[in-house]
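G., the chain you wanted modeled:
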Amino acid sequence: MAVSKLYAVMDTCKKMKNSMNIVIVGHVDHGKSTIIGRLLADTNSLPEGKLDQIKRTCERNSKPFEYAFLLDALKDEQAQGITIDTARVFFETNLRKYIIMDAPGHIEFLKNMITGASSAEAALLVIDANEGVKENSRRHGYLLSLLGITQIAVLINKMDIIDYHENIFNKIVHEYSKFLETINIKPKLFIPVSGFEGDNVASSSDKMPWYKNKNILEILDLFKPSPSLEKKDLRITIQDVYKFTRFGDSRRIFVGNIETGTLNVNDEICFYPSGKKSKIATIESFNTKRISSVIAGNTVGFTIKEQIYIKRGEIVSKEKQSPPAVSSLINASIFWLSKNPLKIGKEYYLKLGTAKVSVKIEKIIRIIDSSSLKDLESTTEIKRHEVAECILKLNHPIAFDLTDKFPITSRFVIIDKFEISGGGIIKESLSDQQMKLRKKVYRRNDKWIESDISHLERAKKYNQKATMLIITGEKHTGRKNIAKQLEKSLFNSGKFVYYLGLGNVKHGVDADLDKNKYVKNEHLRRFAEVSHIMLDSGVVLIVTAQTLSQNDLENIKTSVSPDLITTIWVGDEITTDLVYDFQIESHSTTSQAVSIIEEYLEENGIVFKVW
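Predicted structure as tokens:
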């Protein structure tokens, strides 16, 4: 099962050569699907017999034929006459191949529109000549700007309904041009078209002699493709890690999507936010000859030479290229889609690439009406279809890029109660409390001299995995007694174990610190570095700390890999904001507490059972 699942993932997301992604947007019923249907028909891009089939179906149902029916294949879409999801269609010119995404125009489906536009290199924005510029016409223009799409052609559709009147066309051009100027977009062209009649779609129209410029097909070929993604610095979003044990296969294959750059065998790579490093051993592929390189736009599986623990959500870059930013505090532009307002202090989830992390709005800097672009007075909550600039606080750091450098790894969505409720882009990485410490850890990792004995070899030798057990709680809860008895019990069963109290470091390694200017963060940093060295030897490290806070734990996790840490709270009442792994209540005896912890170590594969 694991093999088939792995290669199913690796065979997806193949990028078409010499292709361009175009999104077509606009207010509901302004004729986007009709324009695309006409474009496909007039360029002979439809499957043989498809056009006649739709026409016969319309005739049988006594329904007038619409070119939009070529796209709106879903029954509920045809019944309601609106596009609900983002349809993708393919055709090509002599210059290149195109993927055109027909995004929903109805205000209820803005989320789908953003999804369709997020991978586009250029856009066609449709306005009904009879209805003129509508609220969603402005809102869609703003969203394209927010997503960084600046190559836009505006199609003034249904010119046949207004008898191809030049003055009405010019009036719409003037109004919408002024709006686009306010969001720093200068469209390539305004084109008067009739999707139903085919005017200026795939060929120029003789019904509008006053218009002398390009038709839709010609303007598509004038759009410039985005700079080659494979020539940018490497970015891989890690999706999963697959382990193989059958038939002597010991591979651990990391799977992710190459967003930008090129991956080669023997590349020295870094994982972020963990800061761990290794070298590419092999690039895996299914049912092909061994390959040594793979480019952006592909899903890749690879193995590394040093078996380090990496989990979903990390971003890979090459060691000598620009790294992604890492922080738990960011400045972002957010577009809110939910009926329930986005509120300061409420917990949500932020998903960027494959990373998913708890997030709260720390501050709303400004709120903008996305259709009028006016600043709104409220700065306590963000209502539906409003855009805001915010400071976001994540519960742990993630890796990301800024939108002006790597748009793909700067875009995120916000999830509320399992629903995507908003999205945005990261404008700035802000310094969080662990920023300076994180830089020191990255520098340490860069200079770290690896042992010839791997972590796996140590684990097999000692029948255990290196781990750090932090036992914390209030005074007089028996933390130290539990730690010492646990150490003795594990030692007597043949385990490589050591108990280290924070005070041992404070009065030893920290002896040079000025006691009158004692800094807790520096004490924790030194303690974590000592712990890191001991854990590298494969030990089960037991430590005690009084009333550890979440910030204290985050400081320790910056130096010590979070996957090696288990946090135990001793006592009935939780008196800090610590997010612990499990709790031992005060009525438990020391022996009972030790048994609970040992059972946890065995169940989680930290201490191996020897039969």
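The domain at 230-318 is CATH 2.40.30.10 (Elongation Factor Tu (Ef-tu); domain 3).

Shout if anything looks off.
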